[in-house]
């Protein structure tokens, strides 16, 4: 559980870096869905997780979203909007920026794994 939590935090940090600022006017559920979508897309682009793993992680986030009573109607659209924004930022980024982003994600994931030992 601890490793999963650290991996999620790592995703969120990288997702925030890739997606840019979050509007203060958005509710917490929308913000969390966007952070998840941004982290999800970053992990996909950096090839750190298989599609099956990403699908499982998204379903887990969706379940936690529902458990917290957040608006499920906006989950998919918020998640997808953040994925699209990261994809757009990725396409505009230089190869060096892409490499640095993936290296940062790798370091965060390794640190999360090291925390378990």
Structure description:
- Helix 1 (2-19) packs antiparallel against helix 5 (95-114) and helix 2 (28-45) runs antiparallel to helix 3 (51-67).
- The chain is globular.
- It has one domain.
- It is mainly alpha-helical and 117 residues long.
- The model is unreliable at 1-6 (pLDDT under 50).
- It starts with a helix and ends with a helix.
- Helices cover 78% and strands 0% of the residues.
- It has helices at 2-19, 28-45, 51-67, 75-92, 95-114.
- It has five helices and no strands.
What's a quick, concise take on this entry?
The protein has about 120 residues and is an all-alpha fold.
Give me the count of strands: 0
Low-confidence stretches: 1-6
User: Which sheet architecture does the biggest sheet show?
Assistant: none
Number of helices: 5
C-alpha termini separation:
13 Å
Global outline = globular
Overall tally of structural domains: 1
Query: Order of SSEs, N→C?
Result: HHHHH
The secondary-structure class comes to: mainly alpha
Overall pLDDT: 80
Strand content: under 5%
**Share of helical residues:** over 70%
Instruction: Please state the CA-atom Rg, rounded to the nearest Å.
Output: 14 Å
